[in-house]
Fold this protein.
Amino acid sequence: MEKYTVFVASPSDVKKERDILSDIIPEINQTHGAPLGYELELWRYEEQAYPSANKPQELINAIAKPYQIFIGIMWKRFGTPTLTAESGTEEEYNIAYEAWQKKQVADVMFYFCKKPFYPGSPEENDQMSKVLKFKNELNGKSLIWDYLNPNDFKDKIQKHLCLLMNNIIQQKKQPAAPKTKADEELIGTLKELWGRMTPELQNYLSVPYNENRMKGDAGIQTRDLFAAIVTNPTPELQAIIKNIPAEALPKPLTGAIVNEPYIINEEPWLSHCIATSLKRMSKALPSNQQLTALDVFIDIARNGTGESVRLLREHNVTPERIAEILVTENLQVING
């Protein structure tokens, strides 16, 4: 049984979330860890610290056990300044992030509570302002996660820890499997097109990218894009989807959906079908027109060659059938 230490960092106002971690980690170990051969161990300073002449943060840094997973949590308090940071939590995050960059830590996970709070004093207002500033700083370089309340945190952190451990165990079992690399030319095309895409298309690309990125694979397969589309289709896409057998499309996404556009600031890889469609669309898109999700979906369904398109063909969704549906539903698209 391989052991992994989980370090939790937070100010004092999220004690319920810290206690939730103590409750769910044994459950994860029993139901998910045992079959895969791993065990998580939670490290909390309140269970390990002792009275000392050292400053509190210096003591925590000195006695902290080496860990493989870092979990940070914040709500309305930022914390007390230390010698090197604006709070102990920020200092602990900085240490963890540097270790992650050196591949000494498997991952750094940070969660922010969105439960409404109205500051009742200048000090509380200052603390909340520091939290928001810190969140914005992290948002520019990491995938952070929001939660609504302690129960929502429990659901999210349990799912995310299992996903993370799945990825860690899979990488250990298949170290030779190379990840798909990003195409520099395609990244340029994506960034050029991004501002000319409708918000819906941006979301359909962002949501699966964020889901896969959380699992350690920063890219989008065609089935991922299609799953995001069927989860929350636009009226135009709904008009198309109702004419396609359900078995020809992936199931809708489940769980929390994050649509922050991290994809545009990073180096994603895209499936061949998505990549070639965006390249075609970039050449065909009129200067006074936005690129829609319907344009991309129809272009892939007509011209693609991958597994998702093969599934459409198996259910008689051919280019000719697609043309018929467009006429029936009185819809027009860009022809790439």
